[in-house]
Amino acid sequence: xxxxxxxxxxxxxxxxxxNENNVPVRMIWSAQDxxxxxxxxxxxxxxxxDPKEKNTxxxxxxxxxxxxxxxxxxxxxTLVTMADTFEKATGEKNITEDLRDYCYHFAExxxxxxxxx
Length: 117
Hints:
Elements: E1 12-18, E2 24-31, E3 36-41, E4 43-50, E5 55-62, H1 68-90, H2 93-109
Helix pairs in contact: 1-2
Pfam families: GldC-like
Organism: Brumimicrobium oceani
Protein name: Gliding motility protein GldC
C-alpha cells in the first residue's frame, strides 16, 4: 500500500481586491473541505515551505480598514496557533510552553488581555 498516492485534492482560494494604489481593500476566501464559501477576511498570513530551497515563501496581507487593535489580536492569536501547531507537529512541549509564555507577554504588552472580573 502506497501512502504517498494522492487520492483526493482540495482547493483553498483567496481573492484580493485592491484599490488604484494596489492596497488590499477586500479579501474573500473559500475552502472546499472546510465548507467555507466566499467568507470575508481582513488579514492573512500565508507561509509555505519550499523543500527544494529549504526556505519559507510567505504572503502577509491586510486590508486598509483593519484597525491596529484588530491587528494586535490577529497577530496574538496567530502566535498562539503557531505554538499549538509546532507542539502537535514536533511533540516539543518545553519550547512550546516558552512560546505560550511569550504569547502571554505579547498580549500583556499590547494591552489586549481580557480584564478580570
